[in-house]
Specification:
single chain; 205 residues; mainly alpha; 4 domains; elongated
Length: 205
């Protein structure tokens, strides 16, 4: 038997593809999985990608749908497809048709956090507030917007502008924003206004 290839990243050989084309249409996906050492989900995903269909459509069972409803809100869709032995796109489609949605994993903001955010927001950098609250910069700015807290116009210092100019050729706007404690949106806008451009790499001779 072939070594385990359940991770799915191992390239399919010509012989494995021939085996898939020969057996999958007959509903023998499990046999393909056993002979290639791949997971059932990987086999079905490969067949789906190649447009290979079984001669009869495999309907979703009540137990499969029950498991999908239980797992979909909080678990990775790809891992669910592996557990069910279904193609990823099939899982996504059935989840959509059943009205299933992912649950927000970020913990809700407490009244104490909101009060602290209101206190800190006018006079502190977003990065510092995020660190103090244990939240991401995006979470802090999003919550402030929801609470109707207007961000005061902070004048860009020479130090900040020099740092942007120095970092932009090699760093992303997200990395620069985190470095100077500004929002990504504000940083991108400042980069545009400064007329900065990425350095062009010299082509190989």
């Amino acid at each position: 038997m072939a070594k385990s290839k359940n991770s799915g990243w191992v390239l399919w050989s010509k012989d494995e593809v021939k085996l898939l084309k020969r057996l999958f249409p007959r509903g023998r996906a499990r046999e393909v999985a056993e002979k290639t050492g791949r997971s059932l989900g990987t086999v079905r995903q490969k067949a789906y990608n190649m447009g290979i269909n079984t001669r009869h459509r495999r309907l979703w069972s009540a137990n499969e749908l029950k498991l999908l409803r239980k797992l979909y809100p909080t678990q990775n869709t790809k891992s669910i497809a592996e557990k069910l032995g279904r193609p990823l796109e099939s899982v996504k489609q059935i989840a959509y048709l059943n009205g299933l949605k992912k649950v927000e994993t970020t913990p809700p903001w407490s009244k104490k956090e909101d009060a602290l955010l209101r206190k800190l927001y006018p006079n502190n950098k977003v990065r510092d507030m995020a660190n103090q609250l244990g939240r991401s910069i995006q979470s802090v700015t999003g919550r402030a917007h929801k609470l109707g807290i207007s961000e005061p116009k902070r004048i860009w210092s020479k130090k900040e502008l020099n740092l942007i100019t120095k970092l932009y050729p090699t760093k992303t706007a997200e990395q620069i924003a985190d470095k100077i404690g500004r929002t990504v949106k504000a940083t991108r806008l400042r980069i545009v206004r400064l007329g900065l451009r990425k350095r062009k790499r010299k082509g190989k001779m």
